[in-house]
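Why does residue order matter? Because the sequence determines the fold. Keep that principle in mind as you read this record.
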Amino acid sequence: MIRVMGGITPYRAQSADMLMNIVPALPVIAGTCIFMIVALGFIHHWNGINLLIPMFLQSALLMTIAYAIACITCVFIMRPHIKDIASRSLPYAKMHCGNGILCASTVALAMISFAIGMGAIAQYDLTIANLEAWKPLSRVVSADVSASTTDAFTEENASRIHASFKELDDDEAMALSMPVGVFFTPSQGEQPTIEQVHAATSPYDDVIICNPAFLSMFNVHGSELRSIDSRDIPSSLSEGIHAYNDLWLTSGASPMEQHLFRWNSSRAFPSLSYGAQTGTITHTTNPLIIVVNDISTSLNLEGFLIPAMSTANLVFANADVLHQAFGRHGVNSLITSTSTIADSVYARTLWLRQTIATCAIAMTVAIIAALLVAAFAARTWSLERQRALFVRHVSGYTFTALTCKRTIVCGLLLIAVTALASFVLPNWSIVDPTRSETLFFLLFAAVGAAFNTLITIHAARSSFREAIHRH
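Structure:
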C-alpha cells in the first residue's frame, strides 16, 4: 500500500511481490530435489541414479511452476484496493481465508501421506515375509497363456495343453494352491471381504484347493493334515462344494467332498492368495483343505486350471521345464510370458520402500508447512485484534483467557477434521485401517491443538508488547 501511495502502479507492485516470493524459493526447491536424490540413492545403493536425476529435474520444474502459480494467485487475491488504502487497514478477511485454505491443504496432505505410508509399511512387512518364503524357491515361475482367449482355445490346443499339464503333473513340476472360499459368498460384483468369506465357510476360515506338489514345496507334512468326512462339515458348506464339482472337475473325477482335510498343526497353513499380487502368501490357522492328487486329469482345464494359471495360483518348478513340456506338444507359442515369483516379490519390496520414503518426506514437509501456516494465522489474528488485546489485558484478563475462544474453536475444527480423516483416509491406504493410523490421527489432533494454543498465546503477548512500544 505504501508503494501504491508513493505512485507505483498496483501491477508493478504485484510483479515485485511475485519476484520477491519466487526467487528465494528456487534454492529451497533445488535443495529439496538434491536431498531426495541423495536419500533415494542411498536407499537403493546408488543403483539407477542416472534415471533419478532427470525425474527430479522434471519434478523441480513442475514444483517451480506450481509455486509460481500459487504466488500469482495469492498476490492477485491480496492486491491493494483504494478502500483499503483509504481506511489504512489490511485485508484481514482475505488473509484469514487464505490461512484456512493453506492449513486445510497441508493437514490433508500430511494425513494422506501418513495413510498411504502406513499402508505401505504394513504391506512391506508382509512382502518381506513373502520374499523370505520364496528365497528357497527362487526358480518357481508363474505364466500366462493366450489359450485363455476364445480364438486360441481350440479343441486341438486344449488337448495339447492338457498333455503338457499331464507331463508336468507327473513330474511334480506343477503346484496348485487356490483359496475358493470367495466363490461361496453371495456375489455382489465386488471382491468379498475376509469377514464374508469367514461367514460363508464357517467354522473354517477358508476353503483351499491344493495338490501334493504344493504341500511338498512348502514343507507341509502328511501328519499335519487330518482326513475328514463331508458329514463332519456344515451341510451348507458341503452343498456349496458339491455344486462346483461339475464346473471344476472333469467327468469321471472323484467328487471334492472325498478329499477333505482339516489342518492339524500349531503353525498356520500357507497358501497363495487369490486375486492379489503375484507370490502373495496368506497364512490360515483353520482352513478346510481339498487335496487333489492328479490335478491335470481331475480338474477341468478351461473351468479351473487356466483361470488358476492366470491368477498365479498355478505355478511351475522353473521356466525351462515349463517351456520344454509345452514345446514337446507344440504349444510353446501359447505361453505369452513367464515371471519368476521371487523376482516379482523383490521388485514389489523395492517399490514399497520407495513409497515409504516418499510418503515420509511428504508428510514431514506437510507438517512443517502446517505449523508455519498456523503460526502465521495466529500472528494475523493478534495483529487484527491488537487494540482489543491491549485494552483487555490491561484490564486484568490473562492471555490464556483472551485467546481461549480462538484456541477452542481451532481445536474443535482440528478434531472434526481428524475424526473425518480417520474414517475416510484409511480407505486410500494400501491395507485396511490399522490401530497405528487411528493413534496417529489422535496424536496429530492433540499436538496440533497444543501447538496452536501456545503459538496463539505467544502471538497475543507479542502483539501486546508491540502496542506498548508503539511498533
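Residues 429-434 have pLDDT under 50 and may be disordered.
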